[in-house]
Structure formats: structure tokens, C-alpha cells
């Protein structure tokens, strides 16, 4: 996929929060790890009392709900997304906060000076960046010398590869975006950071209503391989995999914590 086509696909996928909310809801409803991925991610954050924090790709801001206001007299948080609608949704959800600001930002061209932030966050979005080298260079530029970069992502053995495997007889192959995964992300980050740690989150889905899973799958507008399979066919395939009314679906998520 060309850079322009990739950017257009992502822009359409995240034009509104509907698709994103649909994906979040299935994890909230069926995840077997009750800690919650968001809580787990936050357990790895280390914010000092005067940290300057930048989040790239904040989406709806749901990750920060219930975690604001931030504590610390000089601590500041800048929530950004390349989608203006997402920025608006985040601001509507979280409201005005004394030490929180909102801005439309593209990771490939971050409009801040060198070493502006002590912590930079880019969760579940680096695989969408058309020019990832440029994006990570920008992250390194705006990160302070003793700063920390947090980036969560998925692995190559999760939900969509599982579903693609069930549909082999229909000619379906896994075309999941593998530009930045738990498997290759460490090597990519190692070009920009001297210390890269990977943490894995143990989890799966225990789905009792396959309609929810179907909604999730068809919300992924970049998963063109699914379009060739009718919804009722996929529903039948999934229902055959259920045991005692439950479909166990593997998940593979985690995050990298990086320092210069």
C-alpha cells in the first residue's frame, strides 16, 4: 500500500470514534484478564511530579478517563491526535483541565521544540504511521535526554490471524498490518533508543455472543480479506468453534518502554 493510500485508509477508519469505540467495547466486555489493558499500561508509566507528557494518537481520550486531574504542581499533559474529530471527542470527554491541553498533531511533524517533553506516549498507533522512521525520529527529537517513550502495540498471533486461520478454506489469508508489532518493534525502536524493554500482557477473549465479534471484525475497514466472506458465513464458522457457549479468541498485546 502506498503512503498516500495508507494515510487515506487510516483517516477514514478514524474519521469518527464509532469504529474505535466498537473495538474498545469488545475488550471491555469479553477480556479474561480483568486488570484491563489500560490499567496495565498505566502501571508501567513513571511520571515525575514535574513531568512534561505528550501523547500522540490519544483517540477519544478514554484511557485518561478517571485518571485526571493529574497530580503535581508542574506536571503537564498534551493530548494529541492527527484526527481533529478525535481531538474534539477527547476534549469533550475529559473537559478543561488546568494542566491538560489538546492539539491536532501528526507524529511525522511534531510542532514542538527539541527536548520539550520528559515522557512521550504513542499507544496502538505506530503501525499506522506511513513514514515510521520520520515519526520515531520526531519522537526522539522532542524527548528529553533522560526521558522515556512508551508505545503499546499488538503481536502477530492475535485476534485477526486467528480468524483468518479459521477461514483458510475460503481462500482467506492474514493481511494484518505488521509494520510495528511485538515481534519486530524492538528492532525498529533499537535504531532510535539505546534501552528498549518489551512487556507482554497475558489475555484472551471469552466471547459468548459472536455478533459482538462480527461487529468488531467488520469495523476494521482495512481488513479487506474479510470483505470476501459474507457475515452469515463467518458467523457460522465462529459458532462452530464455540465450546459450552463460549468462543476463546487469542489476544497478543504488550508495550515497549524506551530510553535514549
Any overview of this molecule?
The protein has 260 residues and is α/β, with parallel strands linked by helices. The longest helix has 13 residues, at 18-30. The protein has helices at 3-13, 18-30, 37-43, 84-94, 132-142, 159-166, 185-189, 210-219, 224-227, 231-240; strands at 52-55, 76-81, 100-104, 117-121, 143-154, 195-201, 204-207, 247-250, 253-259. The chain is globular, with a radius of gyration of 19 Å. The strands form 2 sheets. Strands 3-2-1-4-5-9-6 form a 7-stranded mixed β-sheet. A two-stranded antiparallel sheet has the order 7-8. Residues 1-17 have low confidence and may be disordered. The protein contains 10 helices and 9 strands. α4 (84-94) links the parallel β2 (76-81) and β3 (100-104).
What is this structure's SSE topology?
Blueprint: H1 3-13, H2 18-30, H3 37-43, E1 52-55, E2 76-81, H4 84-94, E3 100-104, E4 117-121, H5 132-142, E5 143-154, H6 159-166, H7 185-189, E6 195-201, E7 204-207, H8 210-219, H9 224-227, H10 231-240, E8 247-250, E9 253-259
Parallel strand pairs: 1-2, 1-4, 2-3, 4-5
Antiparallel strand pairs: 5-9, 6-9, 7-8
Helix pairs in contact: 2-8
Q: Round the mean pLDDT to the nearest integer and report it.
A: 89
Protein structure class? alpha/beta
Report how far the terminal alpha carbons are from each other.
Answer: 31 Å
How many β-strand stretches? 9
Number of helices: 10
Q: N-to-C SSE series? A: HHHEEHEEHEHHEEHHHEE
Poorly predicted spans: 1-17
Q: Tell me the strand order in the biggest sheet.
A: 3-2-1-4-5-9-6
What is the beta-strand fraction?
15-25%
Regarding quaternary structure, how should these chains be classified?
single chain
> Helix proportion of residues, in percent?
25-40%
